[in-house]
Amino acid sequence: MGSSEGMGASSKPANAPSQAAAPPEKQYGVTKPISMAGPSVADLKRTQKLEKFLADSGLYEGKEEASKRVEVLQRLEEIVKNWVKQLTRLKGYTDQMVQDANALIVTFGSYRLGVHGPGADLDTLCIGPSYVNREHDFFYTLHEILAAVDEVTELQPIPDAHVPVMRFKFDGISIDLLYASISRLVVPEELDISDVSVLHNVDEPTVRSLNGCRVADQILKLVPNVEYFRTTLRCLKYWAKRRGLYSNVTGFLGGVNWALLVARVCQMYPNAVPSMLVSRFFRVYTQWRWPNPVMLCPIEENELGFSLWHPRKNPRDRTHLMPIITPAYPCMNSSYNVSTSTLRVMMEQFQHGNKICGDIDMNKSCWRALFEPYLFFEGYKNFLQIDIVAADVDDLRNWKGWVESRLRQLTLMIERDTFGKLQCHPYPREYIDPSKKCLHNAFFMGLQRKEGEVVQEGCQFDIRASVEEFRHSVNSYMFWKPGMDIHVSHIRRRQIPCYVFPNGLKRSRPSRSTAQLKKSPTSFHGNELSPTEQGEKNFKRKHDDRGMGQNVVLKKHCVSPPVDSLTGGNPCLHAGDMPVHAVTDCLELKNVTSMSLSNCEQDQFDNRMSPESGTESASNSSGVTSVSSNGGSSPEDVGSAPPGAFVEDSAMAVEATISGRFEDTTIYMEDSVKLGNNTLAGRNNDVLQNELKAQLEPIAMSGMFLDAKGTFDKDTVQNTVIRRLSLTSTA
Predict the structure, then answer these.
(1) Does the active-site annotation cover 56?
(2) Catalytically annotated residue among 60, 68, 121, 707
C-alpha cells in the first residue's frame, strides 16, 4: 500500500506544470489590516449620499477654475525659468549655460493629492540649480520680479518660517511658493523628485521644501484605492474646517496631517468605501493611544544623515503628543505643533464625530449632522481676545501672519506656567470689526480649568508672566513697521464683540424645561459638560428657586456718564444700540484692561493700581489674565458700584441666577497698569494714536453672583475659574 502510494506520487512527470499558488495580497501599512470586508448595499447607498452631499456643498472645483489654475502654473513656470536664465547670465556663466539654465514648478499639498476645492491655495515648489540661492536670489530678486507682474497681488515673503515661503495671489489664485536649490548645475526637465538623490548636499530647509512633493507622491502609492482615499479625505477636511480643527499653525492639524490620518485608515480597511472609511476614521482615532505614532510605512534610514523622528535617540521627539509621521525620507513628525490643549479639543471632536457616524450607520441621522459648525463662543465662559491693527493692508497681512504664528506659543506658555491645569482652545479663525476705522483683525482663545481638577479656595492661575513672555516673542518681528500693534485682553462670554456672530447678532439661548434639567445634572467638581457638549446642546440653565423654568426679560439702565465714555467709543457699544451680550449680568464696568504689545523695549510697567489702595494711574492700561478658583468677593464688590456702572434691575439679578451663567466663573478687574509713554507715541505712530484708545480697548466688567432674592449666593461661586486680569505681579 505504501509502495503503491509511492508509485502514484512518483508517476507524475517531473516537468508537469504545478498548480499556480495565488499571489499573496499586498499589505498596506506597518500592520495587517483590521478588516478585509467590503461594502454592503447599505454602505454603497450611504456613500452615494455622502458624495452627493459633498458635491452640493460646493467642494469640487469647476472646469473653468481648473483651467485657470493650469494657466497660472504655466505662467508662473515661465517667470521662474526666465528668472534663472537672467541670474545665470548675471553670475557670469557661459552662453551655453544660460541656454541650458532651467527651473521647474511642481505642486504639492491638496492639489497634488487631487482633493483641492474652489478657492483653495495652490501649493507650489520652485526647483532651481545649485548656484541660485534662497536668501538673496529667491527672496529678493524673484520677489522684485513678481512685484512687477500686474497679475500678482498681496505679495508676502516669509523667509524665517520653518519652511520658507513666498505667498501671493496670481490672477486671483492664492499661491504658496517654496524654493529648493538642488546640487545640480542644470535642472533636468524630467527630474524624478521621489529619488533620494535629490537630497544630496542640500540644507534642512531645502529638504523640508522638497518633502512636500515627495510625501504627497508616497501617500498616493501607499493607499489601496486612490479614489476612495480622495473622497474620504475631502470629507474629513471639510469636517475639520467646520469644527475649527483645520490649522497647523495654531496647534491643530493641517492638510498633510489629515491626509496621513485618512491614508492610515484606508490601509486598515483596504476594501472599504468612503462612507465606511469616514465612520472607521472616528472609530479608530477615538481609541488611538497617543503618543503612539501614526505611520504609513516603516521609518527609512539613509546614509545621507538627516535627522529622523526617533524618540529613543532624540529627547525632543519624546515630547511630541500626537506623532503623525511622514512616509518619505527623512521621516518627520508632521504634527509637532499639537499641544496638550489642542489634542484635548481634537479628541473631544473625534468622539463627537464617532457618535454622529454611529447614528448615521443606524439610519438615525444624516450626513448633514456631521458637518454642523462648532459653536465656539458657546463652548466657553472665558476668553482671551487678541486684537491686531496696522497702518495699511499689506502691513496688516504681514503682521497678522506673524502674530498668528506665535499664538501657539502663547498656548504652550500658559500650559507650562499653570502645569496644564488651565486649558486653552485657540480658535483658528480671524474676525474683522467692520465698524473700526483702522485696519483690524481679532483672534480668540477659549479658557477653562482642566476637568477633574480639585478646586482649592484662594488658588489662582496667574498667567500674566505668560502673556508678558508672549509680548517679547511678538516684539521680535524683524519686519515691524509703525502702525503695527496688538492688544490682549480677557473677556467673558457676555463681552464677546458683536461682529463675531452672523449678521452681528448673538445666538439666542433658549431655556430648558425642568424635565430636561433633571436628565442632565451638572456637578461643580469636575463633571461639567465638555465645551463641545455645551456648544452642541446650547447648555443654559434657567430656573427659579422653586425649580420652575422661565424666561426673564433683560433690562439694563445706564447711569451717568453716557455709554460712550465707558466703552472707549467702541462702535459696537454705543447708546441706543447696546448689544445684549456686552452687558448681560454685568454690575460694574471698570477701566479698560488691554495690553499694548508694540515693539518697544522701553515699556515700563511701574505705575500700577493695587487692590488695597484702589488708586489708578493708567490711561492706556494693560491687562493679563489671572485665573482663580476662589469664588469669594470683597464687600466692596458686592455692595457698591462705581460711577458710570451699568446697574441691572431686580429682574436682571434674578435672571443672572436663573440662567446659570455664573455657576463656576467670575471675572474681577482689580488691577490696571500703565504701559508707559512709548507704547504708541514713542514710535511716532500717527496712524493709530487717535484710533487705538477709542477702538481697541475692550470693556472690563465685574460679575457678581446673586440668588433669586437678590443676595450674594456663596455656593454658586465656589468653583470660579477666572478671577483677575492685570499685569501686576501677584502679592
Answers:
(1) no
(2) 121
